[in-house]
Amino acid sequence: MDFTLRQLELFAALPDHSTLSSAAASLHISESALSQAITALERAAGEQLCVRRKARGLQLTPSGQFFAQRARQLLRDADALINDLSGAAGELKGPVRLGCFASFASTVLPSVLDHLPEKYPGISVDVTVGSHDELLPALDAGQLDLAMVYDMELPAGYHQRTIYQTELQAVLHPEHPLAAQPTVDLADLADEPLIMYESSPSTANTYRVFADRGLRPRIVSSMPQVVLVQALVGRGLGYALLMSRPEAPAVTVEGRSVAVRPLSPPVSRTTMCAIWPDTMVLSPRAEAVLGHTVRALGGSAAG
C-alpha cells in the first residue's frame, strides 16, 4: 500500500474546507505537510485529486471528490474494526453520528437519549438536527451513521426501518371554532390563515394534500422552526398542519395551549423511520442505538 491511514484522514477532511490553509489549521499540521500528503496520494492514485491555487483556494477534482468519499468510508471501516473487537468481547464502544429531522427533534430525542448511557456506557451519540435537504447529503457523504426522518419523498438508495406511524394533524388556537370538533375537515381550513412550517419535505407535502382535494391554502406566514409555528398558533394568528409526534405537549414554548385535532378524512399518513445508505452496513454501535430508539418510540401513541 503506497499511502497511510493518516494521509487518508487528512484528505478526507478537505471537502469541509475552501482553502489549504484552513484545512491545515483544522487538522493541526503545517500547510506544507498537508500539501505533501496530498501529493503522495495523487502519486499513488496516478491522477490529480485537487487543484491548489492560492488565489482560488482549494478545489477537489471529480476524482478527488470520489476519493474523499471512499477515504471516509475506509476510515469508518478501520474505526469500526477496532470498536467491533470490543463489541465481540461484550462491550460496545465508540461514536454514533445520528441525524434527526428538525420538526420532531425536541420531542423525540429526549426519549431516545434517555437511559442510553446506562445501557450502553461506551457509546457516545453525536446528534445533527436538520431538514431532509441537509440530512440526506450528510448521510451520502458519510458524515452520519443513520438519520431519523419522515418517509416522504425519499429517493432510492437507502435502507429503512420504521419507528412509528404518523399523520398530518391540525393545530389550532383553543378558542378557534373548529377546535370544538373532534376532527377537522381540510376543506374547512382552506380559507383560514395558515402558518406554514417551511422545511423539506414538509412544505411540499402540505401543498400536495391541499392540491389532492382541489384546494389552495391561505398562507399568512412561513416559519423555519416548529416551535415558532406553534407559538404563532398559540397567539391566535393562524392554524398549522403538523405531523403527529409521540409525547408532544399541546402547549407552546410560551406556555400557551393549542388544540391538536386529527383531519377527517385522514391525509398524509406516513412513518417516521431510520434510514442509512444501502451501500453501508450499520455498525454494532449504530444497530444498538437504533434498537434502543425503536423500543423507546415504537410503542408510543402518535399524537
From TrEMBL:
It comes from the Bacteria. Keywords: DNA-binding, Transcription, Transcription regulation. Residues 3-61 form the HTH lysR-type domain. SUPFAM superfamilies: Periplasmic binding protein-like II, Winged helix' DNA-binding domain. Signal peptide: none annotated. Belongs to the LysR transcriptional regulatory family. This is LysR family transcriptional regulator.
